[in-house]
Amino acid sequence: MTDKIQKKGFKNALHEFGYKIFKMQELDIPKEEIKEEDVVKAMILLNLISYKKIADVFLGCAAINLINTYVKQENTKLGYYFKRHIIELLKGIEDINQPKTIQIDYDNSNNQQILLISIWNFQFSYKCIRYSLEIKKLQAQQTIEWDGLRKQLYAKTIFDFALNSPFITKETLGGNDFLFMLNQEIDLYKSGNYKFQSEKLLKKGNFNVAKDEEDQELKNYYRIKLCECKDRPVILTGRYKKTWDKHVTFITIRPYIEGINRITVCDHINLLRKDVERVLNIEDLVEGHRYYIIGYCSEYGNGRMGVRLASNVSFLPLFKIDEFQKIPKDIISTCYRFSIEDYTRKDQKKIKL
Q1: Contact criterion met (CB below 8 Å) for 54 and 96
Q2: Can you list the domains of the chain with their CATH numbers?
Q3: Which of these, 252, 286, 293, 29, lies nearest to 149 by C-alpha position?
Q4: pTM for the predicted model, two decimal places
């Protein structure tokens, strides 16, 4: 099925489905109850999904809408930590680059902080979303008028339609079978490998961890994968080792994923000294201390990977990890999204979804 046929097919299916939701609301069909298993499935999905098609964006929106509905139920076990997934959704929308089809608007009248996402005029809205650089980049020129449909009334029906669509991407962000992995994780949930704690969903044990991080062949594989991130800067962590005439060396290089113990994908990288000197005083670097490194990955000579500090971003591309309890959201909203399937280390005890 070509992209053009897929796009037309999903557009027609969504138009018909939109009419179904309109009729449900017109007939005053009662609001649907969201079950715990449904919200677990949506949370897992948001950690696996790869945003490559318009149908994927709709599925991401539907999953967030379902979770947002659940947290307002009296029996909820979740808080609003899940809203961090909106950052990845917006990056997916930017990468797909279909501004006539997927439109973004933001309404801060009465300090409501409402993010609106319209997909062929089927709208989702989320309140209390901070206005970010990513939203500013994607915001439509014209105001999006509300379509009158209350999506939280029938969040389960909308989620099921999105998940069962034949137009979604069949692979996860890590390149595995999407529906197989999703169902596998639901089986683990039923077996007690997921639990709610402090208004978050935690996965404990049974991780698809990476292989031995000392495996040189595996490291070469990951270095190749990092080179595929060339369109977006990446967030890496590394320990400062030494300054040379033309380079600054960092060791134990790992991709950044919030809340995940990540494998080492590279023994060391050399940043150009002149780039480092543009953002901080070389003498302030402390040997052995860990730093966030935001840069672009590229291949050079014999399949090796190099990293160059990002100079086109609105924040410092190199700073100590202990300067922030959490890396700022505007940095995450700009940078490449790494897969938990690829980079989770063996000593991971639990994951907050």
Answers
A1: yes
A2: 3-204 (no CATH), 216-347 (2.40.50)
A3: 29
A4: 0.88
